[in-house]
Amino acid sequence: MEGWNNAHSIEERVEELLRSFSGIRWLKDPEMWMLTTWRIGGKALALVEAESEEELTTVLNHCDRLEIPWRILGRGSNILVSDRGFRGVVVRLGGRLAECSLLSGGQVEAGGGVILGRLVQFAMEHGLGGCEFLAGIPGTVGGAVVLNAGCFGKEVGELVERVLVRERNGEMRWWGRNELSFSYRGSNLRGGFVVVVKVVFQLFPEERKQAEEKVRYFSLLRKNSQ
């Protein structure tokens, strides 16, 4: 495959990549300024939405095989894109990877593409609390865990029980809490091209009224600190 890759341009390899997909949503030449909150940036070669673990594996393994650079994009709230764009494939997590599910013992499983506000809402709907401080933070679960997002003395890493990671070698594996290391606005998930696919959070029982009050409290703090 290396010889074939060397004989073909990056654009030709992306064309080959997109032709290989069946049932996976993609868009050629997306304007990156439309996908980021800073509203700057040129085009990427393609935008692909992976809606399951299987689709994500297919997309990233094909990119690696064809030696196509790729990046995972959440809400685009913490990145700056050059006006020259990105000569590679941008991957978004959607479908089942942007949903929450209730586990036992106060645990919630969230896909890496879940918007933080949705995680908070889901927890409140099921009588759980502990993540209310995330309500006003833009971004997705995946990015928040990688960067250990937080505010007002609270960090998302405190809630993480385990993380399903797509490792550099292409394997999917759950990392337990003993394998995770969180620091101020960082973690050992940052860099190295690992992808946060799903996260299990450990929350606690809380009445919805109390949770809603906490959301309002943190929203007020954030407003007053801006």
Automatic annotation (TrEMBL):
Record-linked SUPFAM superfamilies: FAD-binding/transporter-associated domain-like
GO CC entries: cytosol
Flavoprotein listed as a keyword: yes
Domain FAD-binding PCMH-type: 40-206
InterPro entries xref list: FAD-bd_PCMH (IPR016166), FAD-bd_PCMH-like_sf (IPR036318), FAD-bd_PCMH_sub1 (IPR016167), FAD-bd_PCMH_sub2 (IPR016169), MurB (IPR003170), Oxid_FAD_bind_N (IPR006094)
Top-rank lineage group of the source organism: Bacteria
GO molecular function, one term: UDP-N-acetylmuramate dehydrogenase activity
Biological-process GO terms, alphabetical: cell wall organization
Keywords: FAD, Flavoprotein
Gene3D superfamilies documented for this protein: 3.30.465.10, Uridine Diphospho-n-acetylenolpyruvylglucosamine Reductase, domain 2 (3.30.43.10)
Protein name: FAD-binding protein
Organism in which the protein naturally occurs: Candidatus Caldatribacterium californiense
The organism's taxonomic lineage, starting at the top: Bacteria, Pseudomonadati, Atribacterota, Atribacteria, Atribacterales
